[in-house]
Design brief:
Layout: H1 5-17, H2 31-44, E1 50-51, E2 69-70, H3 72-82, H4 87-97, H5 120-129, E3 141-144, E4 149-152
Parallel strand pairs: 1-2
Antiparallel strand pairs: 3-4
Helix pairs in contact: 2-3
Length: about 160
């Protein structure tokens, strides 16, 4: 069953909310990475994605839920994947090595490569452990703690 037109508009609007117009300059050594991440994020705003938090059995590595489905973290995962970084693999490997450092919100006793990278608290932990939790800058991952929402801040509205 397809969501209503108003739901489709809301979903598309939520994707556009991920794209903020910011004027903060990137650090010189990271500008190429940030530009590529911004470009990959902006291309994703052209896709229609229906909110679907369903647990899917995924291929590993580079597994993904169906392209027309997903949650906020799937947009972040897809943006990184477009520039050659597989967050499914990175988060899973990180959790295998340091499972005790990750949230225990789901009652698991070991990592699950199908879902761990799709959970905001796990991404928060992953990015913090890898030193990428900083002041907001364009193309930085944004994680809203109050609602546990993830997105990417970019410095422009168009590629």
């Amino acid at each position: 069953m397809r969501p209503s037109i108003s739901s489709q508009i809301m979903i598309k609007t939520l994707l556009y909310i991920l794209v903020f117009n910011a004027t903060i300059s990137n650090a010189v050594g990271q500008s190429s990475f940030y530009n590529r991440l911004a470009d990959s994020t902006l291309t994703l705003t052209k896709h229609i994605v229906y909110y679907d938090p369903t647990y899917f059995k995924l291929n590993y590595p580079n597994g993904d839920v169906p392209q027309h489905k997903g949650v906020c973290t799937d947009v972040v995962i897809r943006a990184y994947r477009k520039i050659g970084i597989d967050l499914q693999k990175e988060v899973h490997e990180g959790m295998k090595l340091n499972f005790s450092k990750y949230p225990k919100n789901w009652g698991l006793f070991k990592p699950d490569k199908n879902i761990d990278h799709r959970r905001v608290p796990n991404l928060m932990t992953f990015f913090t452990r890898h030193g990428t939790k900083k002041q907001l800058q364009p193309t930085q991952r944004i994680i809203y703690r109050a609602t546990l929402y993830a997105g990417i801040l970019v410095d422009r509205l168009h590629i």
